[in-house]
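ok so I'm stuck.
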Amino acid sequence: MAKKLIYFLCTGNSCRSQMAEGWARHLGDDQVEVHSAGVEAHGLNPRAVAVMKEVGIDISHHQSKLIDPDLLNQADYVITLCGDANDRCPMTPPHVKRLHWGFEDPAKATGTEAEIQAKFREVRDAIRDKILTFLHEEIE
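replied:
not stuck anymore, here's the structure
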């Protein structure tokens, strides 16, 4: 079976799409090819890197990237993780299955450092759960 190409998109490609890329690579093993990008490039969020490291996934080498039209057109799945990316994502060809998974932006969390980290963990775990379901229902 050929690997399915999954392209995760978010506004800035700094948190949610980066965590989704890390989870999908980790959980999808050799069944998927995974990329992420943003409609803007905001840089990799260090808190996202830290909470992924807590679960044994290293995304510190990831880079915040803009949407690549070639990848967008080659993808089997384009998954937007925020409303802004869903609204601003370029058109995709008919063969590309587009999905929207709206997750709260942990980078906008306020409060103490512990409260902010808790929000990052909450979003990280919600993304993991969604990817596990997706892999089971769509890929396996």
